[in-house]
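Hi P.,

Sorry for the delay on this. The queue was packed all week, but I finally got your sequence through. Input first:
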Amino acid sequence: MAKTNHIADISLEIARQLSDAEYMPEGLALSKRISEASFPTVPARMNFILMALCTRGTLQYSIDTNELIVQPGDLMFISERHIVDHYIASADYECLSIMVSTKFYHDFVQNVKNVSSLLLFSMNNPVIRLTPSEIQTYSNYYQFIREKMANKEHPYRTDLVKALLLSMFYDMSGVIYRVEQQGQKAQTRADVFFAGFIRLLEQNFRKERRVSWYADQLNITPKYLSEIVKQVSKRTPTEWIDNYVVLELRVLLKNSPKSIKELTKELNFPNQSFLGKYFKEHVGVSPSEFRRNT
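Then the structure:
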């Protein structure tokens, strides 16, 4: 096969190809047979989050050129925007896969730390071996979420599924703790700076949105910070800053009684009009419309 520089996109619509998939158009799909999907034969960029517990067979693939092998009892995690290539599944490969759009994920996470802690962990641990107890926990959640997704007559189906997903992510955080206690793989210099950037961002995004400020705190140039953040995460620092601010606004508009004027001050926007334009640019609706519809 001739080499190509083309990178395809894999969307959540891939789940519609699967005979066993349970699908919600809001941005969620569960399947045991993701290997049935027609993956591109060229490198492909994920535009959704994938968690999958291997139950049978083996899978080989590369993520951002790193070669990985998945066997029964392994949990793999791929966050959106990363490049998947060389995907080869054995004939008997099966997994309990949960595919979530970024928007749907942001709809059920409760704060920005949930986003960054999972992201940082998965980048250093794209495949981890679960204990028998952890396998059972993941499998139980998978089955229960499928059952609730299938009940399309339930008046609170979407909210119930979101609550179960959030509960699963919190419950599975025990895996993160266990693996971190055992010691992560050695980090590169870029990994260390990226982790430092994310920690600073968590603490300061409500007041500080200048890339140069974060670079100064890390004692590196803005250009170098931009290069390493893009290299490690496939996003620019500005995109990360915007993601944190927009997610916080979404959470506050949904859950806080504070007025938009108060949120303008809390998140250090120059005025309410500026906040409104910023939010609409990233979300597609005004803050007041978003609040009315959630």
